[in-house]
């Protein structure tokens, strides 16, 4: 997954491990899982990538960094800030955009062109919903547009039912079908 580790000096790997344990707050028992999930952490520069990203996430108010260590190897300038700026350009005030990523940091992992933009466009144009629904339920962006959002929206339109996004998207297929029958 990350062949660069093989070319990294052992001292750099040790420095990254020390950073994860001491500064990022990863528990020793969780270190193996964290590295297995995101081996790139070991090949990332502590001073050039890991520490600046940690400070940025903390500045945003993202709590419990050990749950989001996969974000530490991301570039603040190339990945994190562009997603915040996309949300702001889409109409979310800066405060709301920051609150969205604070509540759902996985937003930083999604492609703007392949995920965020098409799903936001569908929400606003096809579903006729407002930005406040995405603000209140940023997990909306984690659902598949083709396999979950669009089919469930179509089923709701067909039954002339309007459900809040969490009620429409979170339930299993069986629970969703049962909910439509009751409505």
From TrEMBL:
<keyword id="KW-0804">Transcription</keyword>
<keyword id="KW-0809">Transit peptide</keyword>
<dbReference type="InterPro" id="IPR003690">
    <property type="entry name" value="MTERF"/>
</dbReference>
<protein>
    <submittedName>
        <fullName>Uncharacterized protein</fullName>
    </submittedName>
</protein>
<dbReference type="GO" id="GO:0006353">
    <property type="term" value="P:DNA-templated transcription termination"/>
</dbReference>
<dbReference type="Pfam" id="PF02536">
    <property type="entry name" value="mTERF"/>
</dbReference>
<keyword id="KW-0806">Transcription termination</keyword>
<keyword id="KW-0805">Transcription regulation</keyword>
<dbReference type="InterPro" id="IPR038538">
    <property type="entry name" value="MTERF_sf"/>
</dbReference>
<dbReference type="GO" id="GO:0003676">
    <property type="term" value="F:nucleic acid binding"/>
</dbReference>
<comment type="similarity">
    <text>Belongs to the mTERF family.</text>
</comment>
């Amino acid at each position: 997954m990350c062949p660069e580790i093989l070319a990294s000096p052992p001292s750099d790997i040790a420095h990254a491990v020390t950073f994860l344990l001491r500064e990022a707050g990863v528990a020793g028992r969780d270190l193996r899982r964290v590295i297995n999930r995101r081996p790139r952490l070991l090949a990332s520069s502590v001073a050039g990538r890991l520490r600046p990203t940690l400070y940025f996430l903390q500045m945003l108010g993202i709590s419990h960094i050990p749950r989001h260590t996969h974000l530490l190897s991301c570039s603040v300038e190339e990945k994190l800030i562009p997603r915040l700026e996309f949300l702001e350009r889409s109409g979310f005030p800066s405060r709301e955009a920051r609150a969205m990523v604070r509540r759902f940091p996985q937003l930083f992992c999604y492609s703007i062109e392949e995920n965020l933009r098409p799903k936001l466009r569908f929400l606003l144009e096809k579903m006729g919903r407002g930005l406040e629904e995405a603000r209140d339920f940023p997990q909306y962006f984690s659902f598949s547009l083709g396999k979950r959002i669009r089919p469930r929206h179509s089923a709701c339109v067909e039954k002339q039912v309007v459900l809040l996004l969490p009620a429409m998207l979170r339930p299993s297929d069986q629970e969703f079908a049962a909910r439509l029958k009751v409505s």
